[in-house]
Amino acid sequence: MRPDPHLPTSDEFWRWSATHLARAIRAKEVSAREVLDNCVKRIGEVNPRINALVDLSFDEAVEAAQVADDMVAAGMALGPLHGVPTSLKINSDQEGFATSNGVVAFADAIATDDSPQARLLRSAGGIFVGRSNAPTLSYRWFTENDLFGRTSNPWDSTRTPGGSSGGAAAAVASGMVPIAQGNDIGGSLRYPAYACGVVGLRPTVGRVPGRMVPPDVDDSLSMQLMAVQGPLARTVEDVRLALDAMSSFDPRDPLSLHTVPSPSPARQPRRVGVLRRNGVSTNIQAVDDAVDSAAGWLAAAGYEVEEIELPLLEEAYRLWYLLCMQDFRPMLPLVGQVGDIGLQRIVAHCYAVAEQWWGAEPTLDECLAAWARRGTLISQLQQFLEDYPIILMPTSAEQAFEWDRDIVTPESMCELAAIQYSMMAIPVLGFPALSVPTGVADGLPVGVQLLARRFDESALLDAGALIEANAGVLTPVDPH
């Protein structure tokens, strides 16, 4: 059999994309065990330097790789991620492993079943090699906790890898795994992807099933309506592959769909709205340059690119700090009991952000009015996206933050909240968004964010692929 001309020629399989690995394993050009051994070697070389993967599961992975190779030899049906090394986040149940979420007191909370997100990746053929680190209770844009310690950004150890899926993004960026699972209710997929120079997709709510609380615990309304599971990878093609693998039904998720809807054709399918400015923060030059580059590449590819304003996102950003922070109040006793200093400070600082608009004790009537207002904003955005089906905007107004800027003072967190306003605005409304790199500035990755109509992830990925074709793929990198 002749080698696939699209496959890399290097035998450093940790550099290969998930798409190329799955294709080569299926074609018997390389075995799942060979791929695993090479990735395990890479993990051994770089993970001690950045601490992205914890609870390593090499013994289980070896068994899974042998099963994967036996299935290929027997000519059995293979999943889209067959034999591909993958990681799962420490806030997601994986049978036989602790769902610690970075909390020392939960170090022995062994899961007895796979979460929906784990089940889907496993059934697609993914091989779990370890669990990715996250901040305590997955609450910060900075990945560290008292149980596993700090995860470094492979580009610069003085900068955050993002959070809460910072371990996932750092593992992908440094070549430990080609695909990692993460989740997002306040930027936890998109910001780590941005900070580490990889691609991260926040799918539409309901497309990818997930659950992050025990079966006997009632999930909060904001978690049900805003939180999503999604993939991080080094290429847009791999994110598309992982999204297809993760898009299914699971009865444990109350919003999970049996069939993913196909959006009707937009009135202006090739129009892109460029949202450069907002009313809450000012972009640094590198961020403006990234938006300019992406807009230029899309225009050159035939998109009609126009500058827009969209103040409803500013309103949605403020709503997040009412709806989510009020939903979080029942968790405050737990934060006091098991939370580390970083968690306790960031929670207090987030309430300080909320207080500037909603006061110290919002009423039930104010919360009900905010939920009603959310529906109006969703309707307004849906109508806007009929004419501008893709919105190009910054992921963040700055590059990856220096460590602990969120917990210095309440004022420092208020500043970061403004810089990160879209991290909150988009989840409130439940729309899909893609973070894609555009290049490197001053030694750090920079990129843009694309927003699209609900269930129109294909439009996001098509536009993201055009940006990537011009910007190139920035990773894997050796940790600095």
Automatic annotation (TrEMBL):
Keywords: Hydrolase. Pfam families: Amidase. SUPFAM superfamilies: Amidase signature (AS) enzymes. Residues 34-461 form the Amidase domain. It is an enzyme of class 3 (hydrolase). Its EC number is 3.5.1.4. The keyword Hydrolase applies. It comes from the Bacteria. GO terms for molecular function: amidase activity. The keyword Ribosomal protein does not apply. Belongs to the amidase family. This is Amidase.
